Amino acid sequence: MFTLSRKHKTAIGNILRHICLILFAFIFLMPILWFVTSSFKTNEEVFANINPFSLAKMLFGNYTLTSYISIFVKY
């Protein structure tokens, strides 16, 4: 029977721990990334690509400063 040494068990445990941490970081940072990228797009562009959700459509697109300009001009 094949058994793992303590060194290999520790390495596998570290790899699994890092995979879980990366997954949780992705889950928690995704809304922040969506918020930042959406702030540079028009409402139509933001809500057109919401279902089904696409990471490529979220990151790539037409970015404009019109939302920020209207905030600073109006208020």
Condensed summary:
This protein has four helices and no strands. By secondary structure, the protein is mainly α. It starts with 5 loop residues before the first helix and ends with a helix.
Q: What does the model show?
A:
The chain is built from four helices and no strands. The chain is mostly helical and 75 residues long. The longest helix is centred in the first third of the chain and has 33 residues, at 6-38. The radius of gyration is 21 Å and the shape is elongated.
What share of residues are in beta strands? under 5%
The largest sheet is: none
Order of helices and strands: HHHH
The averaged pLDDT comes out at 86
* Structural class by helix and strand composition: mainly alpha
What's the helical proportion of residues?
A: over 70%
> Which geometry do the CA atoms define?
elongated
By DSSP (H or I, 4+ residues per run), the number of helices equals: 4
List segments where confidence is low: pLDDT < 50 over at least 5 consecutive residues: none
Q: State Rg.
A: 21 Å
